[in-house]
Write a structure and sequence with these properties.
By secondary structure, the chain is an alpha/beta fold. The protein has 2 domains: about 180 residues, Rossmann fold (3-Layer(aba) Sandwich), CATH 3.40.50; about 160 residues, Rossmann fold, CATH 3.40.50. The protein has 17 helices and 12 strands. The strands form 2 sheets. The chain has a 7-stranded mixed beta sheet with strand order 9-8-7-6-10-11-12, with helices on both faces. Helix 2 crosses helix 17 and helix 5 packs across helix 17. It is globular and about 65 Å long. The structure holds NADPH dihydro-nicotinamide-adenine-dinucleotide phosphate. The site of NADPH dihydro-nicotinamide-adenine-dinucleotide phosphate (NDP) has 23 residues, from helix 9.
């Protein structure tokens, strides 16, 4: 890095103890140099200097009362990163690991991802270090209500529209939306991922996992390949993993593994997804109970071992940095030739360098998992129209959007990186161009 090294140095100096944020910024900046060489006016206008600094960061106390009557205190976050092309948009994550660094890395990535969708949405992200695991429905509701009591002051259908992420699914969105409506006395599309009877969009639940497979399908076809008959390993067993498993199977693949934060299951006969949905979506149990009813399946404690399973295609759909350089080496040595990221930043920068060096088919998260937020934007659109599209209509739009993203990332990669298959550079650059143009046109406040 030459042109942008001073920007990166200032990010490091200004944001100490934020390793995930540093990692996400570095991954983007190292691909943007050829763009800035063609656009010196963007350097003069400080576009990248401004891009790495969130427009607004909100941190707040979230007090709530547990089932024993004790007061609990969590920390809430909302980072409104960039609104150059539309209202801030990005999920809420409830997980004990959540801190400002994680929310900022997610918010930063969201800027480029949202731009890639071609829809008018800016980048933001939020969440809390609250752990929903093991909590009663009443405790979840109490927490969500307290969280929204503060968050409601900062969001709005034309300002900032949060959605779900890890630990935030339909139940949590319901409690959050109910509290927003109570406080504001308005029925607007302030959250996405809503229930189907009260403003939600058909196919939103499936969208990230399906979109990942649609994107991969385009990438595989570009190399004369397909999902048909291929062995696939998917990490996670949450929203993204379940619907990636469903679509990959529909496209002819055999998915042999899934995981949660405790360990992974391997089923040589192919994952029985109906059983997984019952375990995870209905009973909210751990993935290991799958082996109680599937005699050929095995369960192994610990997460990283999942990458030692031989496969053609790997779809990491759990969390950040789940594939490090060592896991990447094992995966590739065992014959894996395509990786599509359903989770956000699931590969370390060292792992990505290896994928690029070995020239495997690699679909980075910003492009490959953009189907979720794209469908959230379609939900916003339906809310504005007070109208809803059928499942087939939304799914067709999602499929077209994922193809568009693949095409624009491929084109940007060819034009600026001289390698149409380098979708890391392609996704970053295609996402950046639209935001940079908008920021430049909108000027700087004197
Ligand atoms: P869920 O909460 O539905 O599922 C998360 C899954 O990942 C669970 O199986 C969980 O296991 C596992 N997991 C979570 N944290 C860890 C960890 N530290 N180590 C190992 N496994 C872990 O979340 P989603 O499926 O919605 O999100 C998964 C990923 O996809 C995230 O990176 C998210 O940011 C990204 N994403 C999600 C979108 C969406 O629309 N939902 C859109 C775009 C990206 P356990 O149950 O044990 O915690």
């Amino acid at each position: 890095m030459k042109l942008l090294q001073p920007v990166y140095d200032s990010v490091l100096a200004r944001n100490p103890n934020q390793p995930e944020f540093h990692q996400a910024v570095y991954e983007v900046l190292q691909t943007l140099e050829p763009v800035l060489e063609k656009h010196p006016e963007w350097i003069k206008a400080g576009i990248v200097d401004r891009l790495v600094e969130p427009e607004r960061q909100i941190m707040f106390r979230v007090p709530w009362i547990d089932d024993q009557g004790n007061v609990q205190v969590n920390r809430g976050f909302r980072v409104q990163f960039n609104s150059a092309i539309g209202p801030y948009k990005g999920g809420l994550r409830f997980h004990p690991s959540v801190n400002l660094s994680i929310i900022k890395f997610l918010g930063f990535e969201q800027i480029f991802k949202n731009s890639l969708t071609t829809l008018p949405i800016g980048g933001g992200k939020g969440g809390s270090d609250f752990d929903p695991k093991g909590k009663s429905d009443r405790e979840i509701m109490a927490f969500c209500q307290s969280f929204m009591t503060e968050l409601s002051k900062h969001i709005g259908a034309d300002t900032d529209v949060p959605a779900g992420d890890i630990g935030v699914g339909g139940r949590e969105i319901g409690f959050l939306y109910g509290q927003y409506k109570r406080l504001r006395n308005e029925f607007t599309g302030v959250l996405t991922g809503k229930g189907l009877g009260w403003g939600g969009s058909l196919a939103r639940t499936e969208a990230t996992g399906y979109g990942l497979c649609y994107f991969m399908d385009n990438a595989l076809k570009a190399h004369g390949k397909s999902f048909e008959g291929k062995t696939v390993v998917i990490s996670g067993s949450g929203n993204v993993a379940i619907y990636a498993c469903e679509k990959a199977t529909q496209l002819g693949a055999k998915v042999v593994a899934l995981s949660d934060s405790n360990g992974y299951i391997y089923d040589p006969n192919g994952i029985d997804l109906a059983a997984v949905k019952e375990i995870k979506e209905v009973k909210r149990q751990r993935i290991k109970v799958y082996v109680d009813t599937h005699k050929d399946a095995t369960y192994t404690e610990g997460c990283r071992g999942i990458w030692t399973i031989k496969c053609d295609i790997a779809l990491p759909c759990a969390t950040q940095n789940e594939i490090n350089e060592e896991s990447a080496k094992i995966l590739l040595d065992n014959g894996c030739w395509a990786i599509g990221e359903g989770a956000n930043m699931p590969s370390t920068n060292e792992a990505i360098a290896l994928y690029l060096q070995k020239k495997i088919i690699f679909a980075p998260a910003k492009a490959a998992n953009a189907g979720g937020v794209a469908t959230s934007a379609l939900e916003m659109c339906q809310n504005s129209m007070r109208y809803s599209w059928t499942f087939e209509e939304v799914d067709a739009k999602l499929k077209a959007i994922m193809k568009d993203i693949f095409d624009s990332a491929t084109q940007a990669a060819a034009e600026y990186a001289g390698d149409k298959d380098n979708l890391v550079a392609g996704a970053n650059i295609a996402g950046f161009l639209k935001v940079a143009k908008a920021m430049y046109a909108q000027g700087v406040a004197y």
